[in-house]
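hey so u asked for the seq, here:
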Amino acid sequence: MTPLANGFYRLYATPHSLYSGRARAYLIKKKIPFEELSIGHKSFSEEVISKSKLHTIPVLVTPTGEVIRDGGAIIDHFEQTSGNPCTPSGYQQQIISSLFELIGSEGLRRPAMHFRWNFLDKNKNYLRYHFLHTLPDNDDRELRAARLMARLSKVTSLRGVNEENQTIVETLYYEFIEALDDHFKYTPYLLGGRPSRGDFGLISPLYGHLGRDPYPASLMVARAPRVSRWVERMNRPHQDAPEYFSVETEYLDDDDIPESLLETLKILSEDFIPETRASTQFMNSWLSKHKPRAGEPVTSNLASLPGFIDFTVRNKLFRAAVVPYRHFLLQKIQQMYDKHEKPVRENIKSLLESFGMSELLNLRLSRRMGRKDNLETWLE
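ran it, structure tokens below
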């Protein structure tokens, strides 16, 4: 691949893409020079996909031509070379930050898909504009955009939303953004005066879907104006916190976790834990039967999800597709926990117990995952 000029990075993404949100926000906040191109650009299909391996976004091309697929991997690339400035130094804040990165990437996909695709009477024109303009201006552009929207709308049911349980999905989301809104009374970011990896994970659903699509965006502005401001703030290069008259520019002192953030996580735990529990049981059964080779891709294509799980949230049944990427991110939290001595591990467990997520420390797959050549792979 031809090196890019002027030291710029190139981000292949779309404004309405959930996963693109965290990579874009990170590049903006870290003041990394980049240009953004649509996945409809011919260079994406002709030069990038062969190196990114899966037809997903975001994908970053570095000034030297290296290709990095996945928002988390893009952040890893910069964090590892700059001393991890978006990771707090305290172990409690590290765990909380990583939890929000996980929940933002996986735990909030359900409301993100529901509020986009199940309210097309309010969102359709906006979505049609965006999907149409991801594609080159060819004769079949309208038809291809319509087919793409129809295919993606089916993902809502794969994420577990149906007519019987959608009220629960909506109620949990409202409770979550209202609790997060209460937290943002005190601090402009999750853990203080600067964004952490948790903020970048959380911006994924709260920008691309829930903060921009007309219907959920109107709900956010009305129900949680501080969350709406945080969405704006996360896409601006400066701190953008004029309403906080005495705000600091660092993470909270003394590894502090505000009670308001614990209340937010309590709400998130209600569906995240049952789904993760069921997913862990399914994946361990799947691993015992299939015994993938070391180095084998965890997901070879987007149509080959391993199966479905049933779980209950507030006495309502959910049936959702299993997404192994959830466990890839969870594994990082478990490894973070494991590296500490027993007294610290006990403190971390106690912290997670306070908002109902200590079970995550033990919901482990029988095989670990790694990452090689832009793919998540099974390890020995």
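The CA atoms of residues 68 and 234 lie 22 Å apart. Strands lie at 9-12, 34-37, 59-61, 67-69, 308-313, 316-321, 369-372, 375-378.
lmk if thats what u needed
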